[in-house]
Amino acid sequence: VKKRGRNNYLFYAREMNRHASRQLQVINALNMALLEDEFSLVFQPQVRIDNRQVVGAEVLVRWHSSELGMVSPGEFIPVAESAGLIKALDAWVFRHALAQIKQWLAMGVEDLVFAVNLSAASFEDQGLLSALMYELEQYDVPASCIELELTEAIALMDPDSVLKRIKSLRAAGFRVSIDDFGTGYSSMSYLKRFDVDKLKIDKSFIDDLASGEPEDVAIVKAMVQLAKALNIDSIAEGVETEQQWHSLAELGCDQVQGYWCAKPLPAKDFIAFLESWE
Ligand code: C2E
Ligand code: CA
Ligand code: CA
Ligand code: CA
User: Fold this and answer.
1) Rounded to whole angstroms, how far apart are CA atoms 74 and 121?
2) Which of 26, 110, 234, 277 could pair with 227 in a Cys bridge, judged by C-beta atoms 3.0 to 4.6 Å apart?
3) How many of the other CB atoms lie within 10 Å of CB of 10?
4) Phi/psi at 244 (nearest 5 deg)?
5) What's the complex ipTM?
6) Within 6 Å (CB) of ligand 1, which residues are found?
7) Measured between alpha carbons, how far is 17 from 21 in angstroms, rounded to an integer?
8) Low-confidence residues of the chain, pLDDT below 50?
């Protein structure tokens, strides 16, 4: 027993080392990626349930590292956050999203809202609003084309300053949504004070919807009702089946995003999608 305990310890120590060295590799490669433009953007459609109209898309980053190959955002976003690189990455994404939107506006693609993820560190930054406004002006894109996705992690900040920030972003014309709703720290009363435009119901709840268990349905129903009571839009993430779409329609959810409509698409495929979606 003793011997096995020691072997286990060695095993964990080795695993931890392996994990730490991979993290270091990712940090180094990320620094280079920001200089070398190794990132690209994909766009995942968001569709209204009642009239099936495409209302916009979420902008998601992809990284093809010359050293490490494809690295998923699920791996490198947390690393970028802990290494202090996330603000630079968010800025890269915002700028390149605007460059793409500018092209689409010139082509006559109108009335779409593009949702960009904003990490808590970017949200907290004193210079955020002026940096965003500067970029909008550079690319000649109106703020009304942009939705900023905030996570519930911002609930750890001082509530008054969160309130002020959200107010000033909305006053500047941005829409604001709460991402991964239900997985974080938000409380109901907090949500009421936030005053956002949209609630994104986390994929984990939508996955459970497929079970048909009354409890799982009740939870999603409660979230949709909450959004309605607060007079904000609800969108379900990670909708993969027609059955989920129908359940959400029945519950009165406003929009969906997920593989059932489309995977996150490169720019030209997104335009092809807009043309083929009826
Ligand atoms: P998220 O914001 O919750 O984004 C949704 C994730 O769910 C995306 O993963 C998307 O590809 C995936 N997804 C969408 N529909 C479906 C579906 O029907 N089935 C399944 N299985 N998955 C679906 P992705 O692109 O790998 O991104 C993972 C996370 O990384 C994002 O979660 C977000 O938190 C973060 N992230 C991605 N791009 C950015 C970015 O530009 N900036 C920041 N700060 N974070 C980002
Ligand atoms: Ca998101
Ligand atoms: Ca999300
Ligand atoms: Ca999610």
Assistant:
1) 17
2) 234
3) 10
4) -65, -45
5) 0.97
6) 44, 60-61, 72-74, 77, 90, 93, 117, 119, 179-180, 237-240, 258-259, 264
7) 6
8) 1
Task: Compute the CA torsion angle 78, 83, 84, 87 (nearest 10 deg).
Answer: -40
List pLDDT tens digits, range 214-226. Answer: 999 999 999 999 9
SS3 129: helix
Nearest to 118 by CA among 34, 177, 164, 161: 177
Question: What distance in Å separates the CA atoms of residue 171 and residue 114, rounded to the nearest whole number?
Answer: 18
Please give the full DSSP string across 20-63, using - where no structure is assigned: HHHHHHHHHHHHHHHHHT-EEEEEEEEEETTT--EEEEEEEEEE
Phi/psi class of residue 37: alpha, beta or left (left: φ > 0; alpha: ψ in -120 to 50)?
Answer: left
Q: Counting atoms of ligand 1 from 1, which one is nearest the CA of 180?
A: 3
- 136-165: string of b/e by CB count within 10 Å (b at 16+)? beebebebebbbbbbbbbbbeeeeeebeeb
- Judge contact between 89 and 37, C-beta under 8 A: no
**pTM of the entire structure?**
0.94
246-262: per-residue pLDDT in tens?
999 999 999 999 999 99
Q: Whose CA is nearest to atom 25 of ligand 1?
A: 60
Q: How far is the CA of 206 from the centre of ligand 1 (A)?
A: 15
CB atoms within 10 A of CB 132: 22
